[in-house]
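Handout, section B. The chain below has 452 residues.
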Amino acid sequence: MIAWPTPLEIFEELRFAAELLAAELLFALPFAKKKAGWLMRCAVGFALLLGAAQLYFLWPKGTLEDGLPGLDMCAYHVMWYSGIIVLSLAWLKMCFNVGLCDLIFLGIMGYAAQHIEYALCNELLAMALFPKLPENLPLYTAVCIVTCAACYALIWRCFARPLRGQQGEVFRGSKRIFALFTVMLVVLVGACFAEQHLFRFTQAYFSGVIVLLDVLVCLLILMIFSSAGRNSRLYQTQTMLTQMLAERQRQYEMSRDTIAVINQKCHDLRHQVQALRQMSAPEQAAFLDDIEDSVRRYDAMFATGNEALDTLLTEKQYACQKEDIQLTCVADGRLLAMLSAPDLYALLGNALENAIECVRKYPPEKRMISVQIAGHERFALIRVTNYFEGALNMEDGLPRTTKDDARYHGFGMRGMRMVAQKYGGTMSAGQDGSAFIVSVLIPAGERGKTGE
């Protein structure tokens, strides 16, 4: 028959649900994208799940003669708390835009964190060391709150906070990863329930050892999945950066060919002038227009002493002319002789593209970009400055992307920093009044550490 629950039993069910939701929220907040009205969704879902937790007492309790719980009760425990975990994942999905793989990831991390707190507070303190503590419900509640806060603060610092750099996604969705994570969650829940059964029905001498092993298993789960999350993001970033560098190489080759054609055309001008005298008036007008366009393009050519840099700056000059942007440049390209063409495009090309993207939204009189490449002691200093209004949103020392999908944008700045570090240098970005400045400092004459 159904027994009326005690205040302690009611508290324990509320506690499990609240701690589980808090633990999952602990890992979701650093990286998951919030849905519109997420705070209200969070509060309503939280309240509903706490209310649903009290339905546990509708199941009649039964035991075998030796005091062990009956098989029906064991099965009910597993199904019930598994159901609470599933509902908590639905709650997360209601509040955040997360994929299925990340959702199961949050379930694993949240349940592991909650079970660590439960094993330390409920099993070690309340059952093994101070068995009379639960009899004083106010004191027991206070101990649970303090233990949970301390435990979650440590878990936040070690495992949850590093997720802030994931930008909305930890694991890219795939059926294989989803199946693997689901199996891992089932195994984790089953192992924790098995540990609880052993703890309650074994000798007191072994109870502390069992709790310690339980905590270590959950810590191991947190460490493995936290490391896997970082590696997953690094792999995605590396893949996109590799694609970006390959694209830069292709762009450089196309630009070089275009500039070569223009140079050849300008070189042939003196031979074509002779033919101009023999043309009719309409032919002369068309030919002069063509010459004027070629000369204008040739005037945009830079001569910095570095062919790749000249090609890049000329290409960007064309782009600036189309957008009515004033581009000024004082550059000694010989200082960048150690950079390969793809690395130069990834470094300076990205900086100029970001500057063009930024200033094109301002009135023509504010569309200004300057490039400075000069020697600074034993270093080559690259500085790109453009007009900028507003406040920067910085993350990890770099401005966060303003594009809608941060998963596929924001790699430009990171790629620039990667190239600078490859040559033993540094990169910084910041705001000075109405100017946004990107500065790169590279040891002059250094070759890329990974080789060219």
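Note. Confidence is low (pLDDT under 50) at residues 63-68, 404-410, 446-452. Compare this with the example in section A.
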